[in-house]
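In the previous lecture we treated proteins in isolation. Real proteins rarely work alone, and many bind small molecules. This record shows how such a complex is specified: first the sequence, then the SMILES for zinc ion.
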Amino acid sequence: MPFIFKPDMAAPRQQEKLEEAARRRDEVFRKHPDLEKLDHKIKERELKLRGARFHGLNQRQRSRLQEEIKGLKEQFQVLLQERGIPLDFKEPRWDCNSCEDRGEILTSTGFVRCGCHQEQDLDHLRRQAGLPPRYADATFASARLDLYAPRSDSGQDTPRARAERAFQAGRDFVQKQLPEKSSRGLLIDGPVGSGKTFLLACVANELLANGRAVRYISYSDFLFLVRLSFAPDSPYSEYELIRDIEKIPVLIIDDLGTEQATDFSSSLLYRIIDHRYGKKLPFVISTSCSLNQLARRLGYLGEKIMQRVTESCRICGLRGDVREKIIARERGNNG
Ligand SMILES: [Zn+2]
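The predicted 3D structure, ligand included, written as tokens:
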């Protein structure tokens, strides 16, 4: 699986290891000058052997030189052992011997990411995703759909049937992103506590585990950051904040419509949604509003935003308050 993000950390790490090895060697030679002299002698002989033709050495002279080098190396090793110095004291201590900490291995088809770096890449993707830490372990496998009520008072779909459909829609969304990207998004509506964020986190974590870059935002938090960026001493730049959101392969917007929109927030959201729509980049949205309410709450461009959203998203709902049940269960467990 090719990774989208490629942190350039391998080379500095390799350089660090090489420098560390050099320091270790210098330290040993400083304490044991005779070893340095011997090491120098070996290198000198090896150099001479490599340039044997240039030096006009015949076969017999070469063999003698080889013997001499072998003897010197044995002598060197004996001295190291006597003094309790590791035989490989000059060698870099690689974390990964396969790629020598370069992060890449040369294969017949070119350079490929070494397995040792995939975990690092995943860590980076996870940090970049911005998922709330409490949802770090949310997975489809750990979803407790049995917490949703199996019966309905209104004669409509039961909360459990809805949840099964919504979580399946989440799985389908992920499936369509892997290995090929699909522009079809997902919108989940449902009241507070119905498990929307958990479902979004399942989607995010599954994509991340497969090396796909994802960004999770709550739109109100994102707006807060954008507003902060207007301050002259802000560490954020509005341009960068918005560009990241526009470019990320999968954008997850949690809890859309919690605040009554302003003209600014409405036009910004339209810009983001329209850009992604045009570039066929999917978004996954959750909201505790109905679609009509959402269109109203998203301000003067609400209708246009919802047009884009409904055109490009599969729509599912969650019902019931599973958070209550989880809390009740935890209380029960605690006695
Ligand atoms: Zn490696």
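Summary for your notes: The domain at 130-333 is CATH 3.40.50.300 (Rossmann fold). Residues 1-10 have pLDDT under 50 and may be disordered.
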